[in-house]
Write a structure and sequence with these properties.
Blueprint (H helix, E strand, L loop, with lengths): L20 E4 L5 E6 L5 H10 L2 H8 L7 H8 L6 E10 L2 E12 L5 E8 L8 H15 L4 E7 L3 H9 L3 E5 L2 E10 L5
């Protein structure tokens, strides 16, 4: 795969360049999936600001909006402990973030919480499935053995993606509005 200058990572010794991949949406839109980097702050901020209230709520399980220090943290990550993959495309002459999927390892490093959000205009396009599959593969290569997340039981899109990818869906016994998503990852040979 060729990496264009706009996709080339900032010089960072730990940047996982091997995770960069090109993919095409069913409508023909060319997408690059790559690890997030510190210089993505502007596109991450625009991405989050462009989410509908419903999509933002489903992501954070709250009506709050991420603050600038959180957005900074979302883009300045420790690649050994966590990973965020973003899906970007050049639209109307500008690079735009369409989605993000991330995991953060626990203290032992073999389990991780994950999260994914797809911009409203791109939901239902297959992008969420592709991005989560890429995150799962990267997590397995990094030694993560189990991914888990909590989502709203009413989030039918996320539940469908989780089923398709083999996650167990477990209703929260204390809160029927929440469903826990869990999958065991197979180590890379």
């Amino acid at each position: 795969m060729d990496v264009t200058p706009s996709q080339a990572p900032a010089e960072h010794p730990d940047y996982p360049r091997q995770l960069i991949e090109d993919w095409r949406l069913p409508d023909g839109t060319q997408v690059t999936i790559r690890p997030i980097r510190p210089d993505d702050m502007a596109i991450e901020t625009a991405f989050v600001a462009g989410l509908s209230p419903e999509t933002g709520y489903r992501r954070l399980l709250s009506p709050r909006h991420p603050q600038p220090d959180e957005l900074w943290r979302f883009t300045h990550i420790d690649y050994e402990r966590e990973l965020a993959l973003i899906a970007i495309a050049r639209l109307a002459g500008a690079e735009r973030q369409l989605a993000v999927a991330r995991y953060v390892r626990d203290e032992q490093g073999e389990q991780a919480e994950f999260a994914i959000v797809v911009a409203d205009a791109w939901q239902g396009s297959g992008l969420g499935t592709k991005l989560l599959r890429s995150l799962m593969r990267a997590a397995a290569r990094a030694g993560v053995r189990r991914l888990s997340d909590i989502t709203l039981s009413s989030n039918q899109g996320m539940l469908a993606v989780a089923r398709k990818l083999g996650f167990q869906l477990l209703r929260d016994p204390d809160d029927v509005t929440l469903t826990r998503l869990v999958i065991a990852l197979q180590p890379e040979a």
